Amino acid sequence: MNKPNPQADVQKAQRALAPSPAPQAPGVRATARRAGMRKRHWAVLLSFVATVLLPLVIFGIYLWGVAEDRYASTVGFIVRQEEGQSGSELLGGLSALTGGTSSVDGDVLYEFIRSQDLVRRIDDRLQLRDYYSSFWRTDPLFALWPDATIEDMLWYWGRVVRVSYNQSTGLTELRIQAFDPQMAQAIAVEVVGESQAVVNALNEQARADAIRYADLELTEAENRLRSARAALTEFRIRTQIVDLEADIQARMGVVSNLQQRLATELVAFDELSTTTNRDDPRVGQAERRIQVIRDRISDERRTFATTEVLGTGEDYPTLMSEFEGLSVERAFAEEAFRAALAARDAARADAVRQSRYLATYVSPTLAESPGFPQRFVLLALAALFSCLVWSISVLVYYSIRDKA
């Protein structure tokens, strides 16, 4: 015999009293059931928590609870060049040897600040390796590992030293980070000092090059002048004529005297012709004298142009052409020597003063409050990167699964 079940009787009564569902019109779809979380939804949510939220929480705890505060020292400088014209600039051409533009010097300093040589020098003075690695146990993410090599030091130098260089203006600004403000300022001071040493070295090299080139030009000009004078002296010894121009003037003086004598005889002949007859013996004598003088003038001119100078085997026109060439070469050599001597003196005058120098427009600052690490910025960047990686990974996964 079955026992009565009051709960079952109540459920039957409720079903009997419940209104029957309204008949559905033809062509109308049934109402969708209420959506709910499925396994794939829970998997996506768990992956978001595991790859985004949990790392961000851990990273935030590290930033605010573990990471050491860092201080920044800022310094700004520019390579300046003395204004105004120097002696080498007035001569033209030597200014390119005695100094370059500030833009080129700024490029050199920019590469030097990021070089291994500078890191080694400052490490020898301030023991950078020991200083930055001393925080390895407390802040391994932002400190240097203890057994770092010089290449590792150079990589870490790029993290703690930010160089901002404007090539158009030549302005260079440095921001150096350290775990205490005094060390950051000390590193900035050392960087400025080493940069000044590089500029001084560039100056010394430019000066040495300018003086060396000026001395070479002066030596070449001196040798050229010596050769021109030696050639002229050899010409005088060979021809046994000390001054060819004076000798030619003496020869031409004979012709000049004969021409004056000829003019006098012609005048006398004209006077005689007007006062005597044609058959006068004096007229014949005057004509013979005139003809003799003309013949002598002609002989002198012919012998001057064709007669061989004794002991030379050459005539006067050939010797004159050679002498004029040697004289012109000596004159050019003397002018070149004077110009080279003035250029050498100008180069030495430029060398006594500093043509380029490092002008600091922002002295190394001493921080009063830590500026790094920028915790909110780093956390925001980490969140953005994590979200991008997570979303791309989910899209790739479902794309591959749907195609499978």
Describe the structure in brief.
This protein is α+β, with helices and mostly antiparallel strands. Helices cover 67% and strands 7% of the residues. The protein contains 13 helices and 4 strands.
Describe what this molecule looks like in 3D:
- About 5% of the residues have low confidence.
- Helix 5 crosses helix 9 and helix 10 runs antiparallel to helix 11.
- This protein has 13 helices and 4 strands.
- A 4-stranded antiparallel sheet has the order 2-3-1-4.
- With about 400 residues, the protein is of the alpha+beta class.
Structural descriptors:
alpha+beta, 404 residues, 13 helices
Give the topology.
Blueprint: H1 6-17, H2 39-65, E1 71-81, H3 87-91, H4 95-98, H5 102-113, H6 116-126, H7 128-133, H8 150-160, E2 161-165, E3 172-178, H9 181-239, H10 244-275, H11 281-306, H12 316-351, E4 356-362, H13 375-403
Antiparallel strand pairs: 1-3, 1-4, 2-3
Helix pairs in contact: 2-13, 5-9, 9-12, 10-11
